[in-house]
């Protein structure tokens, strides 16, 4: 199976005339570049069909991420769509003219210092905990 866009005219499964969902072409903009897809595809489907396998990086080590689970559970495919952050690309159907941008979130800085974080001696203990 190829992750690349198969023209509707070459798809042996799609009935003549585009089948359910119309099958018409759409164009979305991803980080300023035009990407073509088919009506009914998710944003992830359009991106995968164009040959893009990763469109996000992890906050800690900048590891590439794209579709992992494909069912909206893992949140690896987050993008910004028309200004709305945290959109799961595997769940959102692409619409003609959508403006999609990659999303990168910096990890929050944890304050370190006296009293900022619980320690072994200051953390509350469960009742009956032998450490108390």
Key words describing this protein structure:
single chain, 5-stranded mixed beta sheet, disordered C terminus, 1 helix, Ubiquitin-like (UB roll), 132 residues, 22% strand, 7 strands, mainly beta
> In terms of per-residue confidence, which ranges show pLDDT below 50 for 5 or more consecutive residues?
15-21, 119-132
Determine the strand fraction and express it as a percent band: 15-25%
Determine the number of helices (DSSP H or I, runs of at least 4 residues): 1
Described by strand count, sense and barrel closure, the largest sheet is: 5 strands, mixed
CA-based shape:
elongated
Order of helices and strands: EEHEEEEE
Total number of distinct structural domains: 1
Q: What is the overall pLDDT average?
A: 79
CATH architecture group name: Roll
> At the first level of CATH, what is the class?
Alpha Beta
- Computed over alpha carbons, the radius of gyration is 22 Å
Sheet with most strands: strand arrangement: 2-1-7-5-6
Helix content: under 10%
Class of secondary structure makeup: mainly beta
| Topology-level CATH name | Ubiquitin-like (UB roll)
Q: Care to count the β-strands? A: 7
**How far do the termini sit from each other?**
60 Å
CATH superfamily: 2Fe-2S iron-sulphur cluster binding domain, sarcosine oxidase, alpha subunit, N-terminal domain
Word description of this protein:
Helix content is 5%, strand content 22%. With 132 residues, the protein is mainly beta. It has one domain: 2Fe-2S iron-sulphur cluster binding domain, sarcosine oxidase, alpha subunit, N-terminal domain (Ubiquitin-like (UB roll), Roll), CATH 3.10.20.440. Strands 2-1-7-5-6 form a five-stranded mixed sheet, covered by helices on one side. The protein has a two-stranded antiparallel sheet with strand order 3-4. It is elongated, with a radius of gyration of 22 Å.
């Amino acid at each position: 199976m190829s992750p690349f866009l198969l023209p509707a005219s070459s798809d042996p499964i799609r009935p003549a005339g585009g089948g359910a969902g119309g099958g018409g072409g759409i164009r979305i903009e991803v980080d300023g570049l035009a990407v073509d897809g088919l009506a009914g595809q998710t944003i992830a489907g359009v991106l995968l069909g164009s040959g893009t396998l990763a469109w996000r990086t992890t906050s800690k080590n900048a590891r590439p991420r794209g579709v992992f689970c494909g069912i909206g559970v893992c949140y690896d495919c987050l993008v910004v769509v028309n200004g709305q952050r945290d959109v799961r690309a595997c769940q959102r159907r692409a619409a003609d003219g959508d403006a999609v941008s990659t999303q990168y979130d910096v990890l929050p800085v944890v304050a370190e210092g006296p009293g900022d974080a619980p320690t072994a001696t200051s953390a509350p203990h469960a009742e009956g905990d032998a450490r108390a």
